[in-house]
Amino acid sequence: MTLTKTPLHSLHLELGAKMVPFAGYDMPVQYPLGVMKEHLHTREQAGLFDVSHMGQIRLRGSDAAKALESLVPVDIIDLPVGLQRYAVFTDANGGILDDLMVARLGADELFLVVNAACKDQDLAHLRAKIGDRCEIEPLFEERALLALQGPAAVTVLARLAPEVAKMTFMQFGSARLLGVECYVSRSGYTGEDGYEISVPADKAEALAHALLAEPEVQAIGLGARDSLRLEAGLCLYGHDMDTATTPIDASLAWAISKVRRADGERAGGFPGAERIFAQQREGAAAKRVGLLPQERVPVREGAEIVDADGTVIGRVSSGGFGPTLGAPVAMGYVNAAHAVLDSEIWAVVRGKRVAMKVAKTPFVPQRYYRG
């Protein structure tokens, strides 16, 4: 299979990146700095990520917000211009088809960022369900996406566009960077303060070069992106959630807007609402939890989780080493009875039991800028 290249492909090679296939793209997993140092650099200064493989989609029309609201358990109608919100597409059983960001560009215009591995099916889903209610424009080839993350991100980006310093977490707007009109949101996937920048594809390399020329900035690959999001307790679609898990199973009940809940003004009206509401009333059979292995043994995705008697009570959905913590971290699904803070449970790694404790996520403090 031929891998798709992002607009920054030649830059990655120039920087000495180790490239790997990811969601049909040839992507940098790490640079010569290495995953551990890239991770810590992002936590301490600023990291630049190429996330152009993600799917950017624009919806237009007077019915666009109402139409999109029929597919997600989120308040899109009242989303103000200049803000973005986290959402999930649900199926008829309440399972998660994908998670996404939704921003309001204008009164009749929405901007979506969906996962790379799901973008073609998400586009087909939107077209099938609401294609007759609004204009759906995929920007997969037209635009690149960069993420600038870490405590120095604001200092760096404000050198190019001073107004971005005033933005708060989840604000979204246009900014001119190097004379190019970009969409900028103050958000990310690391638990740090930072920005995601949507830029015309043919202008992405110049912008990336300019950001990398700043002394605080290093290029960061997918390896550190994964360890950063894991420490931040953030889900990765296809691992920590999928069509077999509802937002309640995935501990994402907070993402269901108040007005869309069972007692809300616009209750339901999204796929799988009945099942999701039943789980909210009665509780889910299993839940996603944070896990801290009590030994220095990384516990990986797919490992079985057992109780003291050796009965299987769940599975690990994401796991690895947390460089900030200097210790292994994981997330997984466990039976509701064991999904209690400080519960002692075990992962089975190569036939041996590794003690773990159920822990709060995020594993590191969130450093989003809320003003």
From TrEMBL:
<dbReference type="InterPro" id="IPR006223">
    <property type="entry name" value="GcvT"/>
</dbReference>
<dbReference type="Pfam" id="PF08669">
    <property type="entry name" value="GCV_T_C"/>
</dbReference>
<dbReference type="InterPro" id="IPR029043">
    <property type="entry name" value="GcvT/YgfZ_C"/>
</dbReference>
<keyword id="KW-0032">Aminotransferase</keyword>
<dbReference type="InterPro" id="IPR006222">
    <property type="entry name" value="GCVT_N"/>
</dbReference>
<dbReference type="GO" id="GO:0004047">
    <property type="term" value="F:aminomethyltransferase activity"/>
</dbReference>
<feature type="domain" description="GCVT N-terminal">
    <location>
        <begin position="8"/>
        <end position="258"/>
    </location>
</feature>
<feature type="domain" description="Aminomethyltransferase C-terminal">
    <location>
        <begin position="287"/>
        <end position="364"/>
    </location>
</feature>
<feature type="binding site">
    <location>
        <position position="196"/>
    </location>
    <ligand>
        <name>substrate</name>
    </ligand>
</feature>
<keyword id="KW-0808">Transferase</keyword>
<dbReference type="GO" id="GO:0005960">
    <property type="term" value="C:glycine cleavage complex"/>
</dbReference>
<dbReference type="GO" id="GO:0008483">
    <property type="term" value="F:transaminase activity"/>
</dbReference>
<dbReference type="Pfam" id="PF01571">
    <property type="entry name" value="GCV_T"/>
</dbReference>
<dbReference type="InterPro" id="IPR027266">
    <property type="entry name" value="TrmE/GcvT-like"/>
</dbReference>
<comment type="similarity">
    <text>Belongs to the GcvT family.</text>
</comment>
<protein>
    <recommendedName>
        <fullName>aminomethyltransferase</fullName>
        <ecNumber>2.1.2.10</ecNumber>
    </recommendedName>
</protein>
<dbReference type="GO" id="GO:0006546">
    <property type="term" value="P:glycine catabolic process"/>
</dbReference>
<dbReference type="InterPro" id="IPR028896">
    <property type="entry name" value="GcvT/YgfZ/DmdA"/>
</dbReference>
<dbReference type="InterPro" id="IPR013977">
    <property type="entry name" value="GcvT_C"/>
</dbReference>
